[in-house]
């Protein structure tokens, strides 16, 4: 019976964040503004890094990849959510739900691996500055970025297959998007195996990069404390502060959502955390890296000066 239901399931209904029209309109305006800021900020970061030769370094290469990943992640979820705010029908076709889950999961997984690679880059920059250029050469940077992408999509493929192979007996998803934990609740069979696989995936995708980040920053802090001048310590810390802020947000939200016991979180809590990660974090990333980074702000000023000169 379950398999028949799954075969005949042509669409899902997303409950979203609210059933009140006034609230949905307010949320539409708010999230539309945040979405536009996200797109503008991340595209601007990519543009600055490509146009300014002073930013052609491994650190900014990884930052441009991070901005691209944030753009992809936001576009996989937010446009559909905005449409549903103003739509009476909040349905999503089965194939669209499958595609949304797989893409959002792939780019989110890629971002965690990428943050680990960025932590390694900062570790080499601070702990081995004389060998930085030799170690973090272009080939290694491209290899790390490609490896993060491949690992992210492999994790997504595995989770998507084992999730949608389940017989689904319900079509109402208590979420604003097709998300793994929300879709699993639709199953009419035991999902213990899926929960184990989600835990294993969470460990590989979240805890392994997080361990690399902690290892890297442990050595970075030790190296900074060995610097005698206060100015040198401050400069070394400034090169890592933006990345550390972003890491804290991303890993904190993900660990709260996926690494806690099932009994410890509700669907509403998961929606709020997912919303923070899908909407707020991609918007804040370019702001954090630009406002806290003198080189990025200098590049922005130089670009604005060139634009004014052409006028």
Task: Please give a structural write-up.
Helices cover 77% and strands 3% of the residues. The protein has helices spanning 2-8, 21-51, 58-85, 94-127, 132-135, 138-164, 180-184, 192-225, 230-258, 267-291, 294-310; strands at 11-14, 91-93, 172-173. The chain has a 3-stranded mixed beta sheet with strand order 2-1-3. The protein is globular, with a radius of gyration of 21 Å. It starts with a helix and ends with a helix. Mean pLDDT is 84; it is low at 1-7.
Question: Would you list the SSEs in sequence order as H and E?
Answer: HEHHEHHHEHHHHH
Count of extended strands: 3
Low-pLDDT segments, ≥5 res? 1-7
Shape type: globular
Specify the helix fraction band: over 70%
Summarize the structure.
The protein is mainly alpha-helical and 311 residues long. It has eleven helices and three strands; from the N terminus they run αβααβαααβααααα.
Secondary structure layout:
Blueprint: H1 2-8, E1 11-14, H2 21-51, H3 58-85, E2 91-93, H4 94-127, H5 132-135, H6 138-164, E3 172-173, H7 180-184, H8 192-225, H9 230-258, H10 267-291, H11 294-310
Parallel strand pairs: 1-3
Antiparallel strand pairs: 1-2
Helix pairs in contact: 2-3, 2-10, 2-11, 3-4, 3-10, 4-6, 4-8, 4-9, 6-8, 8-9, 9-10
Subcellular location: Cell membrane
Protein name: Olfactory receptor
Domain G-protein coupled receptors family 1 profile: 41-289
């Amino acid at each position: 019976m379950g398999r028949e239901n799954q075969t005949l399931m042509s669409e899902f209904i997303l409950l979203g964040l609210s059933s009140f029209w006034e609230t949905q309109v307010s949320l539409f305006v708010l999230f539309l503004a945040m979405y536009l800021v996200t797109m503008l900020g991340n595209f601007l970061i990519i543009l600055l890094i490509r146009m300014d030769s002073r930013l052609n370094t491994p650190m900014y290469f990884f930052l441009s990849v991070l901005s691209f990943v944030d753009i992809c992640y936001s576009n996989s979820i937010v446009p559909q959510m905005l449409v549903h705010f103003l739509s009476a029908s909040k349905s999503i076709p089965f194939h669209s739900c499958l595609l949304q889950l797989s893409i959002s999961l792939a780019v989110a997984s890629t971002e965690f691996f990428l943050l680990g690679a960025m932590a390694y880059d900062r570790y080499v920059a601070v702990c081995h500055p004389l060998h930085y250029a030799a170690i973090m050469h272009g080939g290694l940077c491209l290899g790390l970025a490609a490896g993060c992408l491949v690992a992210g999509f492999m994790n997504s493929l595995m989770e998507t297959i084992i999730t949608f192979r389940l017989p689904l007996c319900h079509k109402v998803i208590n979420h604003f998007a097709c998300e793994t934990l929300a879709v699993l609740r639709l199953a009419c069979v035991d999902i213990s195996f899926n929960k184990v696989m989600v835990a294993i995936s969470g460990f590989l995708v979240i805890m392994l990069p997080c361990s690399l980040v902690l290892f890297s920053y442990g050595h970075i802090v030790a190296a900074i404390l060995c610097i005698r001048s206060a100015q040198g310590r401050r400069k070394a810390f400034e090169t890592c502060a933006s990345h550390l802020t972003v890491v804290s947000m991303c890993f904190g939200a993900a660990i709260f959502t996926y690494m806690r016991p099932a009994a410890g979180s509700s669907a509403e809590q998961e929606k709020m955390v997912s919303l923070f990660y899908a909407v707020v974090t991609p918007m804040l990333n370019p702001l954090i890296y630009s406002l806290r980074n003198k080189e990025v702000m200098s590049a922005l000023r130089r670009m604005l000066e060139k634009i004014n000169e052409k006028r």
